[in-house]
Structure formats: structure tokens, C-alpha cells
Amino acid sequence: MGFTNYDRYLVFNYTHMLQNIYGIEPKNICYVHGECTGNEEDELIFGHGNKKRIMEIKNIIDGYDRRSLFQSERTNQLEYECLLRFMQNLEKDVNRCKWVTEMFYNRFLEEPEIINVYGMSLGDVDFPYFKQIRDRWPETKWRFGYHSKQDEDKIKILVKRLAIPDFQYKTFKFDNPIFREIMDIIVAKTGIIAYEEVKSN
Predict the structure, then answer these.
(1) How far apart are CA 88 and CA 57, in angstroms?
(2) Of 68, 106, 119, 190, which is least packed with CB atoms within 10 Å of its CB?
(3) pLDDT at 43 over 90
(4) Alpha-carbon separation of residue 66 from 33, 60, 61, 62 (angstroms)
(5) Beta bridge partners of 115
(6) Three-state SS for 40?
């Protein structure tokens, strides 16, 4: 399976692992939330896209407003108001991030043969990006890597939300020859002398 410069990469963390370990050229990588180069000019996007949680907090606050308030309720309301401000300040501009990914996709005319998904939480915050990809390339096959039963369950939920039919996706557990091949490449390229496997439940 390997990572090559014939592929395109959407990266949700800030590191240069693909360049440093696999030799992937920067033109083939889109850093959705910015990249960490060590320069002062680095613009990293932190935060969340959890509008549902913001609405839940607003509803809790509205519930307090409709009741006569005892001191303990007033204290709780103030805590929720602080939490709401905190959540709103940390809300990331998902539309701006999607615009960045759209510009990246527009640079490549060919449709991908397969979309590989590795190491993502597959939570609600990731869904807009998956939907964007699914809408753009509805016929492309998908392959999802997972570590645990919980990951596998999240994949099932995601493919259902995206309406990906069974014949259009596969999954594989990160405890197979493909995963070992990736680990061996990392060990060889980084000069690690030995590594110890940690078994997850």
C-alpha cells in the first residue's frame, strides 16, 4: 500500500510526517487546519465545529431564564454562560477550511481510484469534510482503517450517514501486514533501532 507522490493527501494534524518520513512533496498535501513549520508566521486553526453542543448549552441557559432563580441556579447559569462564550470562541470556521480543501481538489482533474481514511476520530466535527468528498466523487471507493471495535462502529455510522453502499467501501484493522509494512517503513526512515508494540483493548 505505501504512500507515494502519485496520491493526494488531506491532513488534519499540523505535522510534516508525510514529507519527512515518506518523502511526499508539499504540492500533494493539503493541511486542512494549517501546518506547523516552526516559523512565527504559522497560522494554525484550533477549535471545533460542534454547533450541536453550543445549541444544547443555549437551551440550558434559556431554561434557567424561564424560572425564578435561586442562588445555586444563578451560579449554574453563569457557569453555562461562561462555557457558552468559551465554546463560541473556540468554534472553528469549517466553511473556510472546506474552501481550502476545495481549492486543493480543483488542482487535480482526475477522480481518485480510492479514498483511504486513516487515524481520524470520525466524529461530527469531521463529517463536513467527508460529505464534501462524497458529494464531489460519489462513485469512488473508500477504505477505512480502524484500531478498535469502537472505531469500527464509528465507520458503520459514517458510511450510513454518507449513504455509501456496502460494495463501495472496505475496512481493515491496523493489526495486519499492511500496518506492519507501514511501521517498518517508519522504523527504517527514522532510524529507530527498536519499537515495542502496545496492544489495545
Answers:
(1) 11
(2) 68
(3) no
(4) 40, 10, 9, 7
(5) 142
(6) coil
State residue 30's pLDDT score.
83
* pTM of the shown model: 0.63
> In Å, how far from its chain's centre is CA 198?
23
Q: SS3 of 115, please?
A: strand
Cell of 149: 471495535
47: left (phi over 0), alpha (psi -120 to 50) or beta: left
C-alpha gyration radius of the chain: 21
Beta-carbon-side half-sphere exposure of residue 167 (alpha carbons within 13 Å): 1
Lowest mean pLDDT among 53-67, 86-100, 168-182, 186-200: 186-200
Q: Which three cell numbers stand for residue 73?
A: 441556579
- Residue 76 is predicted with a pLDDT of 74
